[in-house]
Amino acid sequence: MTITETKIEWTDFTVNFWEGCQKVGPGCDHCYAEARDVRFTGGTHWGPGAPRRKVIGGIAKLRKINRGAEAFHAAHGRWPRVFCSSLSDVFDNAVDEQWRVQAFNEIELASDCRFQLLTKRVGNVEKMVRDIWDHGRWPQHVGLMITVVNQAEADRDIPKLLDLKTRLGIPWVGLSMEPLLGPVRLDSLPIKGMNHDVLTGQVWQCGGEDNLGVRTDGAIVDWVIAGGESGRNARPMHPDWARRLRDQCEAAGTPFFMKQMGGTRKPFPEIPDDLNVRRFPNG
What we know:
Layout: E1 13-14, E2 18-19, H1 32-41, E3 53-54, H2 58-67, H3 69-76, E4 81-84, H4 97-109, E5 114-119, H5 125-129, E6 142-147, H6 151-168, E7 173-177, E8 189-191, E9 194-196, E10 202-207, E11 210-216, E12 223-226, H7 239-252, E13 256-258
Parallel strand pairs: 1-4, 4-5, 5-6, 6-7, 7-12, 12-13
Antiparallel strand pairs: 2-3, 8-9, 9-10, 10-11
C-alpha cells in the first residue's frame, strides 16, 4: 500500500474507516462527499436509513502512517497530522458500533500520529467515547474539531465543545468554519448567562456599556479554519466574514488557517494577500 499525502492543506493524511453520512445542518447542503458517493455508488450510503460502507483498508492505512511517523518527524520536524474522516463523521450514530470501537482503538494505539477528529455531531461525542477510551480518558494525541458555519451554530455548539474539552481533558479543540455562510463573532458568546470570549477565555457579565467583573478562566478554542464553499451551486462567502474571524484570532493569538475562497468552478479565486494566513496549533 502506497501512502500519499492529502491535498487538504491543513492536514498531512486522511483516513476513512467507513463512508456515508446524513445531512444535519446548512453546511451539509452541498456536501462534496455525498456528491462523490452519488458519482461512484449511486448515492446508496447517504441519508436516513442508508447503510454506511466500511473501508476495508482504512485501518491498514492508519497503521502504515503510524509506522512511518518517525521518518516523517525526521523529515518535517513534527509528527504527522491525520484527519478522520473526510468522507463520513466519526460520531455518526448510524454506524455499526463495532466499527467505531475498532477504529477508536486503532486511533488510540497510533500514538505517533496527531489526530484531527472533525464532527457535526458534538452531542454524540461523550457517549461514544465513554466505553471505548477508558471511560472518557481522552488520548492526548487526539484533538477534536467541530463544524460551525454561522452564528447560530456557534452559539449552540461551541459551548458544548468547550465543556467537553474541560471535562474530558481534550488537549486541543478547533473550529472548521467551512463553508462559512455568514459573519460569526467568537469574542462574545452567551454561555450560561455570561459572555465568553472563546478565543481568550475571558468571561464577563455585561452591565450597561461597561463589561463588569471580567475574569479569565474559561476554556478556549485553539484553532480556527475558515473557507468558502466549493462546487456546483456554491454559496458565496464575503471576504469580510473571513477577515473578521482573522482579526479576532490575531487579537487573541489564536492560530487561524484560511483554506480557500471557494466558488462554483476551479481554479478558485486566489486568497487575498491580507487573508492568506495559514497557522497551525502547537503539537
